[in-house]
Write a structure and sequence with these properties.
two-stranded antiparallel ribbon, alpha/beta, 8-stranded mixed beta sheet, 10 strands, Rossmann fold
């Protein structure tokens, strides 16, 4: 993919031939634990709809929330997807994460945080998506606060892919400005994992608002980076003129927050195309070596729908287990 027009053309061809296979139908019919802010924002301008406010969200089947029964294993994972992910893609990704977690013998409820990321595939659409991601931070923060109120003793684990890192950045800064969270360490988020983070490589510095919020609101924060990520080392750098956090990690001139860890996961992502096993995202066309597939952090499935590789999920589970807080 040499430029933005190639990205757009590849995606257009994909949309002309939607891959509605039997496996996709099975995934679409599965019950999803969902927090959604879909249709809260104008995809052409990034503006918040007049029918919504800065904190509201919709929730479906979220255990422990709004009178739903609590659950036995005392922890919840929240997955925040990246840019240009539609509602079908969200369902597929959550299903793939569940398969990867089960393969690592770590079966907990996973909630999808689904936001308006499917803007136009060009630099203007990317800019709008960044704005929408940032504006979703207070909405994610409100959900986390509501969940903590209902389930004060449960672990909360966040996994954010690509531009989902911007949502998390904004959410943690918001929580750090909230008196209840700032003054009560028992409210802390148990763990946060960024995977292929599409934010700048100084964002998590201890000297930034985000870095301060990481120290104050999270027990264990992990950045899983990958120097061969095909999307980050091409379109991101070309558009932003800076290195992303998910490519080489935090800029070496910056200090780490106290509870911050990084790991290179390039060799956890094999050179497979079509990570979903059902459809091939446009970015998969440049996959040629280990680490290339920006879609592969959460694993790969075969055409039969079964998981064939767990991507970087094994690293995430190992981090969860190592803290001995389950």
């Amino acid at each position: 993919m040499k430029n933005w027009s190639v990205y757009k053309d590849l995606l257009a061809r994909h949309h002309r031939h939607p891959p509605f296979t039997s496996n996709l139908f099975k995934i679409l019919n599965k019950k999803l634990n969902l927090v959604s802010t879909r249709n809260h924002f104008n995809l052409e301008t990034g503006q918040l709809s007049l029918s919504h406010n800065v904190q509201d969200y919709d929730s479906y089947n979220v255990p422990g929330l709004n009178g739903n029964l609590s659950f036995d294993n005392k922890e919840l994972a929240v997955y925040i997807h990246g840019v240009w992910t539609g509602q079908v893609g969200v369902k597929e990704q959550i299903d793939r994460i569940n398969l990867a977690l089960i393969s690592n013998e770590y079966d907990i409820p996973v909630v999808a945080f689904s936001w308006d990321s499917n803007t136009v595939i060009n630099p203007s659409g990317w800019t709008i998506a960044k704005s929408i991601a940032k504006q979703n931070g207070p909405k994610l923060a409100k959900f986390l606060s509501d969940f903590r109120t209902n389930c004060p003793n449960h672990n909360i684990r966040l996994i954010a892919h690509s531009l989902g890192a911007k949502v998390v950045e904004s959410a943690l800064i918001r929580l750090n400005d909230t008196e209840t969270w700032n003054n009560n360490s028992s409210y802390n988020i148990t763990s946060v994992h960024l995977i292929g983070a599409a934010i700048n490589d100084r964002a998590t510095s201890k000297n930034t608002q985000f870095g301060i919020a990481i120290d104050n609101t999270v027990n264990n924060f992990y950045n899983l980076y990958n120097p061969k990520d095909n999307l980050l080392r091409s379109a991101y750098i070309k558009t932003e003129n800076e290195n992303p956090l998910g490519l080489f990690g935090l800029n070496k001139a910056e200090p780490f927050p106290i509870n911050y860890t990084e790991q290179n996961v390039m060799l956890e992502i094999p050179p497979f195309r079509k990570a979903s096993g059902i459809y091939k995202p446009f970015i998969d066309n440049t996959v040629s070596e280990w680490g290339n597939n920006h879609s592969g952090y959460i694993g790969f499935r075969g055409a039969n729908g079964k998981l064939k590789n767990d991507g970087a999920i094994k690293v995430i589970v190992a981090d969860w287990k190592s803290t001995n807080d389950r």
